[in-house]
Amino acid sequence: MEALLCKKLGDPAVDSESSPIVVSRNHPIPELDSPTAVRVKVKATSLNYANYLQILGKYQEKPPLPFIPGSDYAGTVDAVGPAVTKFKVGDPVCSFAPLGSFATFIVQDQSYLFGVPKGCDLMAAAALPVAFGTSHVALVHRANLTSSQVLLVLGAAGGVGVAAVQIGKVCGAIVIAVARGAEKVQFLKSLGVDHVVDLSTQNVTASVKEFLKSRKLKGVDVLYDPVGGKLTRETMKLLNWGAQILVIGFASGEIPVIPANIALVKNWTVHGLYWGSYKIHRPVVLEDSIRELLSWVEKGLINIHISYTYSLSEANLAFAAIRDRKAIGKVMIALDDVGSLRSKL
Fold this sequence. Notes:
Quinone Oxidoreductase, Chain A, domain 1, Rossmann fold, alpha/beta, zinc ion binding, ADH-like_C, disordered C terminus
């Protein structure tokens, strides 16, 4: 089978002999490793910022080299163990894994797999678990976002940001989105966002304060932050008494300091959200979350926006789109029918 191997740490967006990634054309097909194991033929797999950081060696989980990167994916069941009861060969499924989805086949226990409902194609299903799962657990299970609240989403045009914006609208919240550039602003407006701040031309504090004043709103109730750095420090000035801060990541490269004394005086709640650890500590929450998201896709409540689709041999271009913040929504790797998928998307 084909597999993308990370043989050393470095920038996977570099297209040269020094690249840390290489496509193996004859990698061994993984065997079923338990009676309840399922082998999936991968149709598409998603790129997340965490995948990029992991190959750089800057992610919190550092697997031994060499490894096959990749997390969320979708495909069809290729083989099942003798005790598998939930799936049969040919069933469309999606899931996520700590590693290994950048390959033609992947093996996981049946308990990790989700059936893909009618109305949700495999490309969309592959893009859903990590980005939408992160935002859903953060907003619905941690912040308990309600229709009476104001949600401020930083990095709103990225994978988790687009997910957070849409989930916020499903919850009925007033959604303010922060992004950079006219194309991203226009896209976010098309999602029905109540107010968009363009960082390339506007001051975030002034723009949000003007909007809040126009709606007779006191401030922001929930801050969704995958960016960190200076933007976190600035937007904390907009938070209400009793607000919640969702720490999702640090795409800016700078980890912000949230002053404990201000959190005390303003009764803020700070939530750290490492979505992947839910599989260990709260697996039922994670599973319920993904099932609800798949049902929302089926009902048309949320849409998976895919900016770029590449083949496995073009993985460096896919990582460059992530690194250079070119994408609006998701970047995907298709493991077959790349041409037809591109024309569809």
